[in-house]
Amino acid sequence: MSPHDHDHHHDQDHAPITDQDGPISRYELLETAIRELLIEKGLFTAADLHAQIDATESRNPALGADLVAKAWVDPAFKANLIEDPRATLGEMGIDVGAIAELQVVENTDDLHHVVVCTLCSCYPRMILGVPPAWYKSTAYRSRVVKDPRGVLQEFGLELTDTTKVRVLDSTADLRFLVIPRRPPGTERLDEAALAQLVTRDSMIGTAEALDPQS
């Protein structure tokens, strides 16, 4: 049979095809084996998996920005969001996925939170979308734990000496969302306008919310 005589049956229910550079790790082999087994057992289909991947990849920080803006203008909502994020978001029809725990923290004049994942790149994708490349870099993951103020300065964020910096380490079971400080001079802005001031980096803690005058 010539190279052009092979069959073209593409209706098989298989997992997504991915490019692989270098040897496959044992964790990737394990993930592939489990994924294929679950598909074979009929617990979900490859189409279901593709749909979930598409839904995850299409998410962006806009949802997180809307939540922060609402927390800025609604103290009761902010209290509920911090106390029980999963239930509060569930009431809004927002599914945070299968992670065991989501914690919401608030930055203040006296305390600044910055998020990292020292082991890999755990990140609240369901709220903030795809993590930035620097969040996954070895340099950020190692240095922000040892010298958070120095790393924040490199991001252009200067904190006062009296502001305590707390580094939050995400895990496979725990993700974080930071509510940045509300910028001064925004008392008359509505939620939609406030959401425009909330950036992805400010919800990770490597930046402040935008100045409305800038």
Description:
With 214 residues, this protein is α/β, with parallel strands linked by helices. The chain folds into two domains: 26-57, no CATH class; 60-204, Nitrile Hydratase, Chain A. The protein is 42% helix and 11% strand. It has eleven helices and four strands, in the order αααααββααααββαα. The strands form two sheets. It has a two-stranded parallel sheet with strand order 1-4. It has a two-stranded parallel ribbon with strand order 2-3. α8 crosses α9 (148-154). The protein is globular and about 55 Å long.
Summarize the structure.
By secondary structure, the chain is α/β, with parallel strands linked by helices.
Write the layout of secondary structure elements.
Blueprint: H1 26-40, H2 46-58, H3 62-73, H4 75-83, H5 85-91, E1 101-106, E2 111-116, H6 125-128, H7 133-136, H8 138-146, H9 148-154, E3 164-169, E4 174-179, H10 191-195, H11 200-204
Parallel strand pairs: 1-4, 2-3
Helix pairs in contact: 3-4, 4-5, 8-9
Q: What oligomeric state best describes the polypeptide chains here?
A: single chain
Strand order of the largest sheet: 1-4
Corresponding CATH architecture of the largest domain: Alpha-Beta Complex
Query: Stretches where pLDDT falls below 50 for ≥5 residues?
Result: 1-20
Question: What top-tier CATH class of the largest domain fits best?
Answer: Alpha Beta
Structural class: alpha/beta
Return the domain count: 2
Q: Note the gap between the termini.
A: 68 Å
Number of strands: 4
CATH level-3 fold name of the largest domain: Nitrile Hydratase, Chain A
Beta content comes to: 5-15%
| Alpha-carbon Rg, integer | 21 Å
- Biggest β-sheet strands, sense, barrel: 2 strands, parallel
Name of the CATH superfamily of the largest domain: Nitrile hydratase alpha /Thiocyanate hydrolase gamma
Helix content: 40-55%
User: How many helical elements?
Assistant: 11
Overall outline: globular
